[in-house]
Amino acid sequence: MTAIAPTAGNTASDWAWPLDGGSWGRDPQLSADERVVLAQAGPRLLHSSRLTRAERGALARLLGPLEQARSCLWIPDKAGHHRWVDYQVVGMLLVRTAETGSVWWGWGQSAWTRVIGPDVQEWSRQWPAPASQSCRPRLLAYAYLLGAPVDEALFLRFERLRLARSVFGPEIVDREVDTVYGLLRGWGYRLDTAGNRAVRTLIAHAMLLNRSPLLADMDSALLGRLREAVCSTGRASGDLHSLQRALSALGRCEPPIARNETLLSELRAQRWTDVPTRWAEMVRQWFDTSTLSRNVRMAYRQDLARMGRWLAAEHPQITEPAQ
Known about the structure:
By secondary structure, the chain is mainly α.
């Protein structure tokens, strides 16, 4: 019996980008009042909660979008620690604005990378010791929601599943991940292992690259970008094959193609030259439906080809697999 593939998430109306920035003042140039307040606040900027009401009013154009971004973030614990982290993140953006003399709307990719920190060491060098390291992933989340030109390579340096759940919400992220996992488990994949996290991380990475958590928005082009990101780490990931199989079953892309497919086709032709047709058909059907890994299936198929040739040579009276 052929299982019916689940729908790839719900329709596009099920989710929409959480921020509407149509009313934001995106002029990268600071006004005269903003320059004065940033200069007078000085070191207090890093602790933005210490700004006076008048100062916050003068910086309303800058603080408004940041407050909206904060309200969209999913934070598992609403304790004061997280609020303090948000105050520091806002303060860091204000400090860098004062240093550069321009608002983040005009910052390029390199400027954002420097603010977020390409690594922990660079982060520690540019921000004072009291700054919580929890600010670093939160800065990336703010930049992401604000639509900043963030270097996608930065995603590889963070917990991508946590980041995706923060910006999209855990319910929709977990639902779409479970859709993929339901398919993979139905095909016999063992997911209750260390690889469990690897596949989830890949799905979250795809969501972040696509700026959408919906499987229905994913396609072959997105998988290409994800493959480039994984290859840039110097590691090959078989989990990409699993993810592409699932997305293909959901109608989002073509099925994965084996590496060195041309060479493999030539080897297959050589191996199966003298194998009886019915035997070859039976082995091919087993290969396409078995849940064993590809490398194991390739080894077994080679042995089965030898058996087929031996039967044809030594027992020509056997013409059906059932015999």
